[in-house]
Design a protein that fits this description.
mainly alpha, three-stranded mixed beta sheet, 11 helices, 74% helix, olfactory receptor activity, G protein-coupled receptor activity, transducer, receptor, olfaction
């Protein structure tokens, strides 16, 4: 334990996670999360493979989808394996450097995914509202620049948020009431006044979450207006069906992220934080490929072809 009176500073943290659960509950959680993690890795890995190798999926939408799956793989790999290990071993200690690195990777991948989802909405807007100019507007060079922008801002933003989280010394209790190093919880353990860092995290969340959301809302407002202006009801249904997968993913990801980083800390607690943390760290990355696969005939066809080639090999 860390004692404030003798001026000891924290050199390591303890991830509480699910250690207060019974042994049988931890065993059940281990089996469940291992299955979900394996499914998420397999599905996202398959999407990465087919979007980058199948010539029939050579379009901006699938280019973005491949990068979304890659971000999901990075996202879940920074948190879930560690949680699985902690469900088996009794030692839940993580070093200061490990906590900082994990938080940076979570921030980087999370912010990049927020921006990429906005670019995917813009891609749907151009495809539906400006189909004749689509190939020119969403050229290969433009797609590469958009993905690079998402990665760049994600990695730069991760540095800023890491600095705001770890800028002060830590000499309070070193127990983190979650299964990974989540910024608002870590900031609350700082010796100094955590309010400035929390306000900066909140302000950053407004920019990072709401700015892409504005672009998404504007894109889908134009898409909806274009769809309603079409005479054929079958045409409206077919056009909108290409957008429902993306909208579902956006709702899942943004709901959990906004609860974690845009709510006052007084409304939070371990019982509330963990379910939302699980939602955006494992459930959403697992659901993304399933949602896109089940709603898209081209994706299902590409998966069948890829699995068929694998079986033959």
């Amino acid at each position: 334990m860390v004692d404030l009176r003798n001026g000891t500073t924290v050199a390591e943290f303890i991830l509480v996670g699910f250690e207060q659960s019974s042994s049988s509950t931890q065993a059940l959680l281990f089996a469940l999360f291992l299955a979900l993690y394996s499914l998420a890795m397999a599905m996202n890995g398959l999407i990465i493979f087919i979007t980058w190798t199948d010539p029939r999926l050579n379009s901006p939408m699938y280019f973005f989808l491949g990068h979304l799956s890659f971000l999901d793989v990075c996202f879940i790999t920074t948190t879930i394996p560690q949680m699985l290990i902690h469900l088996v071993v009794k030692n839940h200690i993580v070093s200061f450097a490990s906590c900082l690195t994990q938080m940076y990777l979570v921030f980087g991948a999370g912010v990049a995914e927020c921006i990429l989802l906005a670019f995917m909405a813009y891609d749907r807007y151009v495809a539906i509202c400006h189909p004749l100019s689509y190939a020119q507007i969403m050229s290969w060079q433009v797609c590469v620049k958009l993905v690079s922008t998402a990665w760049f801002f994600g990695l730069i933003n991760g540095i800023l948020l890491d600095y705001m989280t770890f800028r002060g010394p830590f000499c309070r209790d070193n127990h983190i009431e979650n299964f990974f190093c989540e910024a608002p919880i870590v900031i609350a353990l700082s010796c100094g006044d955590p309010q400035f860092s929390l306000k900066m995290i909140f302000a950053d969340a407004i920019v990072v979450l709401l700015s892409p959301m504005v672009l998404i809302v504007i894109s889908y407002a134009h898409i909806l207006a274009s769809i309603l202006g079409r005479a054929s009801s079958s045409g409206r249904g077919k056009t909108f069906s290409t957008c429902t997968s993306h909208l579902t993913v956006v709702i899942f990801f943004y709901t959990s992220a906004m609860f974690s980083y845009m709510n006052p800390r007084s409304t939070h607690g371990p019982d509330k934080d963990k379910p939302f943390s699980l939602l955006y760290t494992i459930i959403t990355p697992m659901c993304n490929p399933i949602i896109y696969s089940f709603r898209n005939k081209e994706m299902k066809g590409a998966m069948v072809r890829a699995l068929g080639r694998t079986s033959l090999a």
